[in-house]
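Handoff note, outgoing to incoming analyst
You'll be picking up this chain. Sequence as last confirmed:
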Amino acid sequence: MYQAARTDLLTADWNISITSANAENLVSAIAIRARMRQLERDEAYFRRMLRLYQNNVVGHRGFRLKKVTGIDGAYDRDISKKVRAAWHEYLLPENCTTYGNMSGVQVQRLGVRCFKRDGVILFREHIGPQFPFGYALEPIEVDRLDHWWNRPAVGTANQIQFGIEMDRLKKPLAMWILTRHPGDVFAWRTGPEYRERVPAGEVIMWHDFDRAEQIIGMPDLCAVACRMNMLSKYEESEAVASRAAAAKGGWFKRMGTEAKYEGPETPGGDKIMDATPGEWEELPIGMEPVERNPTHPNDAYPDFIKGQLRGASAGAGLSYNAVANDLEGVNYSSIRAGLLEDREQFKYDQELGISSLMNRWYEGWMPMAVLSGRLELTVKEMDRARRAHWQPRRWDWVDPVKDVTGKVMEMEAHITPLRRIISEDEDGGDIEEILAEMQEDMEMAEEYGIDISGQVSTPKIPPGEPGEDAPAQNGNGKGKKSNGHVDVGAALRTMEKYARFAANDPE
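Most recent structure output, in case you need it:
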């Protein structure tokens, strides 16, 4: 047998039962969601984890609509500008949701938070003239998806698991949604309807899977819940013990049966003694002080906290330094290595958000925006605006000078295309839009008689690091050093090549 499959004194409490993902979900989902929300309310480090995901997956600007194209990829700049302007207006709080009080960025940040904490979030699409664009989303907590409504496929009736009605291949057909939250105390809806059947095409579900045949997602941070709860209780106990130690309390010990105390007392009969710094006073006859001097805070406290947080951070897919907000002993190389791994997780979550939420959201909104008159497109123009291209949040580095210099060198050497450099920038954007803006800048500079195409000095990269000071081999095999300048003129000429390419210029 494999060692991990043996049952002995060391593995007797290691479960070996075979259960499906859905069986585990059935008995675990409600309890773990409730406990994750309690951690969100009360545990600072767990709340920090959720905020890190919100700030890095969505950011303060959200998933930005970069451009729209037809199904065949055909791009029209004027159509993209129209659609982007209407989309930005729609994302205002008064237009975006049925509540009329949440902006598009808030909806996206809520989606990331619920996905990580609860495992699932639902968005129901509503259509009607009461909405400015004829279309709005209703964010719904997963608790309203009827968890206990399950039945097998019998006759013509479809099977239902966790309130999701499916065909025989387990493709969702409808969602059975409770008319009110099961934990809500405000039961305003007085009708007899307990749950309603909503077609799956009207519900956007953002979740992920850990196992094949899994019907619904579980909290992504479930593996850190017990550790974070124990850490929170330990910190509380240590803080209370340290506070008691700082107070340096004690007791009066009676030395004889006739000893009397005539000093101040609490209503419960406990003796009180002043603890003014530097003061000495005479104790009552027959009384001996017994000092209370606990040894807190514990010397191992900082190392223990770090160890627990490192394990929790690993389970959350985040670096310890980010979760603990601890930059002690961090240098440029180590923090960059940690950020690279974090950002891979963030990029995956961004792709999941785009495929699960943003594309479905746009597909439902665009035709209704046209029908409502808020987006003026002809039928032919609508065909060239079917597919949305999104720009998720990107990040700057600690030392942007080195990174910008490296990007210019990569572009001049034709290693990295300009469009990729633009898309990976923190502000992001579309190459056609950027080149058009650059052309407008150059025309304006020419109008004012200013030359912006010359050489610009940039700081040299320190010796020993790859970059400007690294010897380059010439035709004779001899090293040749750079003069410490970036040839902006050459960079602009490279950009002009991309501009002709974007304009389908055969030359």
